[in-house]
Amino acid sequence: MLFQPTNVYPNKVTLSINEAGNPTVPIVFTVNGDGIKYRDWRFYDADTRKLISPYYGKWDNGYYRGEEFRANIPVEGTYETMVHGGNYFWNVRLFQDQYDILKVTGVIRNSGLSHTNDVVYVSYGVSNIIAPVSYDFDGETIEVGACYLVAQTSTGIERKKIIEYQNADSQKVLSPDGDYVSKIILESAFSENITGKPYRVEANWIQSPDYYFQLRNDPTATITAEFQDDYSVSLSAEYSQAQGVNIQWYQWSIDAYVDMGINEIKLATEFIKSNKKYTGKIEFSFIPFLGDYGSPVKYKIHLTVCTLDNVQKTIEYEYTPSIAHENIDIIYDSLEKGFDDIQTYFSLKNITYGDGQKIKGYVIEKLESQTGNIFNGDYKPIAKRISTSGISAINASDINVSSGKKYFYRIIPILQNGSIGNVIGTGEISPEFNRWSLTALKENLTFYDPVSEMTKDELYGFNKPVYSRPEKTWYFDLDTEDAENDMIQNFSRTFSPSYSRFSRVTSLNNNYLSGGLTCKLSQMVCDEDISQVTDDIYLVEKWRKFLHDYNLFLLKNPKGDVLIVSIHENPSTKYNYNVNDITTSVSFNWVEVMSVDDIIII
Question: CA-CA distance, 225 to 236, in Å (whole number)?
């Protein structure tokens, strides 16, 4: 039995062909049937309906359900050539051995003309009837498909091969009934005249619907990079497309390397990646590595553009900013560093260099290192500050840290003349958080422009939304037996039967955590002084308001998970009237909704 092909390509897509050598258009489809031996397909111009070229082929061992067929079709066809800017469609026919596929039913019509029994007439416009199809295979002509007309006669059911079907407009015949009929010529005659009798047409082939596609040139873009006075690199691109198709979205992706001449040492893979948004301009900016690495830092810039026709193209560009370094040490009072219940921090006071000058600015870079190796690692800038009046103190904190991990920070000082001084390292900071914490987050448009998707002022963001912490953090001392904090990893995998021995698995990209917390209100605190916690109605109301007023929260635990979550379902409170103080238990469920690396929290 034959069924329509699936997973067909190209179908409702836009393609760009490589015009070098012998350019082709790829076709792919999955066969649905058993023992399919022959195939043919045709390509047409969708605007003129002209045939570009027919193709055919044979599967010596047959094709079976679930098997995939692939071929590359030359753009230069028998009659026409497919070109960029053109619109096209194609269809495929599949042929089996058995002639048991019902194509059409009807009644044999009276044409009013005299004819022998190897000629019949059917209503004009009947489709799905073809003459026999034959192709040459290695010098041998093989009939691969045909139609048979089947009708009941006085001697029984008779089947006759259709040799010719005259269904063109110029071939139609006016019947005595006042409508038109079409002539069918048979390979052999019926045993009697079957005019007025029911008929059916059976065949060994199916034809697919028409699959449309269009050919368009790849989009192109010319990239420009400039090092700015604020120590950022500004990127822009001039976009063009031969057929004038506009851009749908674009995305920047940047890798950083130290250029050692013969070898390149990778500082960071996908060091920066922008969101996909087009607002009329293709622009981006990022803060480069400003430290002295002994050799220039080279950036491999990848710009992916996608047209309104969904054609994607990645343009590559290399850029090395000209950054001046001086062997000048920075002097400061003792470095204070450490961590509190939720973040790391460090501070330097009375920062000077040379003859007591203040630095003009700085960039802070961060490294998470399991081994503690601070020389080779994926450092990333996390903050920047420039001041025309000079800077004499640095106070920094970082909430995007996990309990039990090792972090190193280095400060790149910017001197008054614009050059870069010697790097200041903070050494290792290994935070240990002993409590769960829940921090409300609220988008802060003071530091972020959602239209251009760029951070503003002194924050380093490369297209990351900025969130602030509008309230104090709630902490949970989950050290009692009745506390619950289950976590579930969620991913979508569907298992279904297949024709092979094993089940078929389908997997989506979902991969997020969810869970719930249940604990006594007396185990929770939203103030630094835990001795002030009182399980009263004021604290209950404060907790309920906290959960209601915000959509996003930062959830951290002592194990090291750092999650952006939203409260799922309805939180609950339960009072225990069996004790004099009427203690309160609270429960809430949460779902991870984004990565903590996708936003900035200040």
Answer: 7
